[in-house]
Amino acid sequence: MNDDGVDRGKRRFLTALTAGVGTVGIVFAATPFVLSMTPSARARAAGAPVDVDISKLELGQMLVVAWRGKPVYIVNRTKAMLAQLPNNTPLLLDPYSKVKSQQPPYAENIYRSRKPEILVTLGVCTHLGCAPSKVFTVGAVSGLGADWPGGFFCHCHGSKYDLSGRVFKNVPAPMNLDVPPYIYLTDTLIRVGSDKKEGAA
Amino acid sequence: MQKIIAWIDDRFPLTKVWNEHLAQYYAPKNFNFWYYFGSLALLVLVNQIVTGIFLTMNYKPDAALAFGSVQYIMYDVSWGWLIRYMHSVGASMFFIIIYLHMFRGLIYGSHKQPRELIWIFGTLIFVALMAEAFMGYLLPWGNMSYWGAQVIISLFTAIPVIGNGLAQWVRGDYVVSDATLNRFFAFHVIALPLVLVALVFVHLVALHKVGSNNPDGVEIKKKKDEKGIPLDGIPFHPYYTVKDIVGVTVFLMVFAAVIFFAPTLGGKFLEHDNFIPANILSTPLDIVPLWYFTPFYSMLRASTTDFTHGMLAIFTMLVAMLAFFTQRGFRAKFLSVAIAGVLLLGMYTLEAKLWGVILMGSSIVLIFFLPWLDRSPVKSIRYRGPLFKGAVIIFVLSFILLGYLGTKSPAAVDLFWFKNVLWAQGFTLLYLAFFVLMPWYTMIDKTKPVPERVTLK
Questions:
Q1: What predicted TM-score, i.e. pTM, was given to this entire model?
Q2: What's the pLDDT tens digit per position in A73-107?
Q3: Rounded to a whole number, what is the distance in Å from the CA of A161 to chain B's nearest CA?
C-alpha cells in the first residue's frame, strides 16, 4: 500500500484511542478475577461467637480456645498479678489502651477486661501474627531477665506483653494485643465474638 | 533420514535452531568449574516439574486432607517417598545451584555491558523461584508451613493504609486457611512454573544473542577467523554438552546421596516441626524459614527501631553530602535533597516493622541494579584490584553468616561477644554497603590489563 497522503495525525489518534479503550476493557475484565481472591461469602459469614465455660479455670491459669481460626487466651489473674499491673506503666508503649482499634470500649482500662480478674485477649502477636507463649513466672527464673513482671513472650521476633496484653517499649510489635468483643452470659460462661446476650452461639 | 529432515526444515526451522543454539553456537573455550551451574539449574528445573506432576496425582489441596495426603504419598503410594524426596531435596539443590550461578556471574562480570538484560532476567528468575518455594512450603500443611506463611503474609500488614486489605486478599481469609492453601496450590503448580519457564526461555534467548562471557571477561566475538567464527570459540555441541554431562553425573551422585541417606538433612531441608500437622493454637517455639531464605530473614529480624533509625540517619547524611559535593547540575542536587527529606520524614512517621520489610526488599532490588552500580572498566575478578576482591569476600561472608544467624534465636549468643541480633545488624550493613558503595570502590580500584585473547589457566 502506498503511504502517500496518509493522515498520520489521525492514525496516531486512532491508535491511541484503540489502546486506551483496550486498557479500560482489560481493567474491567481483570476486576472479577482480582475480586475473586478476596475472602468469600462463606469466609465472611464464618466467625460465629463461641461460648466458653470458665468455671474450671483456676487462679493463675490460662485457657486457649479457637475463634475465627485464631487462638483466644483467657487468663484467671491472681491478686499478685493484678497488683503488678500499675507498676508496669513506665515500661509500656500504650499503658492506658488509647489505640481504639485494639479493644472494645469496656476494655479501655489497665486490666483491659470487663472484670479485672479475667483477661480475654487474642493470642495473636501484633507484629507478624504468631501466638505468644505465656510466661507467668516473675523475675530471672523466667529467662527473660530479672525485671520481668510476668506476661506473654513471642518467640518469633521477641515481642513482649504484660499480663493485660499491653505491649512493652522497644520490641518489634507496635500495638497491644487485640481484645475481642465478649460478654458474660453467666458468671462462669463467656461468649467470645459478640457483645450481645441474644443470638445463637 | 536426510529426506525427513529436509521435509521438516521446509516447514519448521529444525536444522537452523539446532545449529544456532548448539552445533554452531560458539562458546569461549576457557569455561571452568563455575560454568556447570547453568546447565545444572536447568536439570533441577526439569526435576521439579516432573516430580511435581507426579506428586499432584496424589496430593489433596485441602486443609483437612493435605497433611494426610502427603503421608499417604510417603507410605502407601508405590515409590511415592522417592518422588517426594526428589522434589523436596530438589528445591534446596535448586537454591544451592542458583546461588553459585549468581556468584559466578558476579565475579566474572557477567552482569556488565552487554549482558545487563541476561542479569535482570536471571534476577527475576531468582525472585520467581523464591515465591515458588515459599508457596510450595505451605502445601504439606505442617505446623511450620502454617506459621511460616502466617508470618510472611503478615509482612504485608506493615504497609500503611492498604496493608490489612492486601494481606486478606493474599490469604482469601482473615487467617491462613483452606482458601490460602488452595490458591497457593494453584500458584505453585501452574502460575509460577509457567512464569519460570518463560523467564528461563528469555534468559537463554538474551544469552545466545550476545554470547557467553568467560572467566577472563574477554569478548570472543572481537577476534574472528576468515569464516566469521570466534578464534576462542568452540561449538557448544559436542564440546560443552559432553563437559556438562560430567557435571550432571557428579551432581546426581550428590543428589542421590542426600535423597537416600539424609533426605531431611537433619532438619535443614525439611524442618522437624513440619512433621506435625498445622495447629492454629500453637506456634512452633522458633519459626525459622528453610535455609535458603535465612539470610533475608536475618535482615528482617535485624530491623529494630534503634537500628533502622541509626541507619536512616547515616543514609540521610550520605545523601545530603552527595548533594553538597556532587559536580552535577542543580537537578541532581535538588533530587538528593528531596530524597534526604523523604527519608527523614519516613524515619519519624513509619514504624520499624515497615522499615524491616523495606530493608529486606532493597536487599533483593539492589541485585537488579548491579550492572549499573559496577563502574569497573574490566569484567573479570582476575584483572580487578584488591578493593573489589576484598568487597566480594566480605559480601560472601556476610551473606553466609546472615544465613547462619537466621536459623538461630536473635537474643542468643552463637558467634562471640555479642548477641546474634547485633551481628546480624552488622552483616546487614556490610551486605548493603557492598552494593551502595560499589560505584566508588569499583571506580578507584586498580585494574590489571586484560589480555586480547582468553587464557587457559
A1: 0.90
A2: 999 999 999 999 999 989 898 899 888 889 999 99
A3: 16
